[in-house]
Automatic annotation (TrEMBL):
GO terms for molecular function: ATP binding; ATP hydrolysis activity; ATP-dependent peptidase activity; metalloendopeptidase activity; zinc ion binding. One of its GO terms (biological process) is proteolysis. Its cofactor is Zn(2+). SUPFAM superfamilies: FtsH protease domain-like, P-loop containing nucleoside triphosphate hydrolases. It comes from [Clostridium] ultunense Esp. This is ATP-dependent zinc metalloprotease FtsH. Its EC number is 3.4.24.-. Acts as a processive, ATP-dependent zinc metallopeptidase for both cytoplasmic and membrane proteins. Plays a role in the quality control of integral membrane proteins. The active site is at E346. Residues 118-254 form the AAA+ ATPase domain. Belongs to the AAA ATPase family. In the C-terminal section; belongs to the peptidase M41 family. SMART domains: AAA (SM00382). The keyword Transmembrane helix applies. One of its GO terms (cellular component) is plasma membrane.
Amino acid sequence: MKRKKLIFIVLIISIIMSTILLFDKYYPSPGLSKVKIGDRMAIWAVTIILLIYYVRSNSKPQLVPSVLSSEKVANKERDKSNVSFKDVAGLEEIKEELQETIDFINNSNKYRKMGAKIPKGILFYGPPGTGKTLLAKAVAGETNSIFLYASGSEFVEKYVGVGAKRVRTLFERAKKEAPSIIFIDEIDAIGTKRNLESNNEKDQTLNQLLVEMDGFNTNETVIVIGATNRLDLLDEALLRPGRFDRHIFVGNPNMKAREQILEVHTKNKPLDKSINIIDIAKKTHGLSGAELANIANEAAIIAVRNNKTKISIEEFDAAIERVLAGLEVKNPTVLLKEKKTVSIHEAGHALVAKVLKTEMVQKISIVPRGQALGYVLKFPDEDRYLLTEQELMNKISALLAGRGAEQLVFNEVTTGAKDDLDKATSIAREMVCSYGMSSLGPMVVDEHYIKHNYEMLRVEIKKILDKGYKEALRILEENKDILHHVSNTLMEKETINSEELDDIFKIYEKPMDCAT
C-alpha cells in the first residue's frame, strides 16, 4: 500500500515536469533553455512508464473472488453495548451465573488462586424471543472486555475456505485483544451435525470453529457465547465440555418474570393509575419476552391512535388481542348464517373450557381477526409445568367442543375447526408417542418407529380424540340452554368478557336441596 502511494506521488511530479517541458518546447523560456533534449526525452519516457504501470496495477484482473482476496473480516467490533443487567428482567438465575463469568474477566486472579478455570464457552438455547441475544448484549455492557459480535450466517459463503478463514481471523483478533468475548448468534447456521456423506463448506467452517475453541492458550481470557433455537441440530463435538462448558436454557418467563418484564417495558410509558401489571402478567401466560415487549409497544400505539394521554387497561387488552389473535377486520363481509355458526362454535369452546376448568376464559368474540372469524381468549389460573392425563384429555375436549357444538345444533360440521383439530391431534400424538398415555404402555416412540408403525399409532391417537370429542358432546348436550344463551349474547353484543360469562352461568345454576 505504501509503495503504491509512493509511485502515485512520483507519477504526479513526473506529469507536472513533463507538462512544463512540453509547454516550453512551443513557448521557450530562458530558465529551461539549459535542459538538453536527451534529459527531456528521459523525463517523458519515465512519465509514460509510470503512468502505464499505475494504470495496469489498478486494472489488474483478480484471479480469485474479492471475498477471498480481501483481508477485511465481516465480524467487526460493534459499538459498545449500552445494555446492562438492569435491562434484563425475569432471568435472575441466569444473570447470577453470568455474573461469575464477568467477575472472572474483571478479577481473574482470585479465581486462578483457587485453581478455577473460566468456562471457555456458554451456549444459550431455547425458543425464539426469550432474551438470548439480550443477555449477550448485557454481558458486553457489564464487562470492560472487547465484545466481538457475529451471526452464524456471516461464516456461510459459496467459496470454499472463506468461512474457515473468517473464523480464524475472528479468533486471532480475540486472542490479540484479550480479555474478550465472542458472541455468535444463530450458531446452528454453521454448527449443524456432520455426517459421512457431507463434505461441504459448512463442515470446514465448523471444523475450524472446533479447533479454535479447543486450541486456546489457557492464559488468554477469551469466552465464546453462542445462541440457538435448535440445540438438537448442533454437532456433539461442539457441545462437549472444553468447548461449550455451560448450556443455559432460556425459556418463556413465568408469572413473576412476566411481571418484571412488563415493568421494564412500561417504565418510560405514561400508565393510567388503574393499571395493575400483575393482572396483565396473568393474561399473558406462555408468551415470550419479545411478545410482551410488543404488547407494551402496541398498547402505546393504540393509546396514541385513540388520542389518549395515558395508557389504560383497554389499550393493553386490545394489544393482547392484536398480538394473539391478529388484526381486527373493520368491515367484515360475514353472512348472517356464518355468523350464527361462528357464535355457536365459540360458545361451545367457552362452555366446555369453563365446565372442565381447563383454563380461565377471558373473552369470547365473533369479531373477525386475521384469518379467524371468532376466537376465545383463555389463560390458566397459574403457571403449570406438569399436566395429568385427565387434564390433557380436558384440553382436547375443549378444543373439539367448537366442532361438537356445530354438530349438536346444526347436525353438520364446517371447516372452521381446522386449527382446533390440528392442536388436538398434536396433544394426542404427544400423549401416545412421548408421554406413554395410551394402551401401548409406558414407552416413548421415536421417528423410526413412527415411520414403520404409523397405522397402529393412528388407531391409538384416534381413540384419544374420539374419547375427548364424546366428552365434549356430552357436556354440550347437558348444557344446551347455556350454549344457546352464550351464542345469542354473542350475536347481540359480538363479545363477552369473563364477568358476563359468569353471570350467564349463574342463571342456570341449580339450587342446592336443603336438608329437612
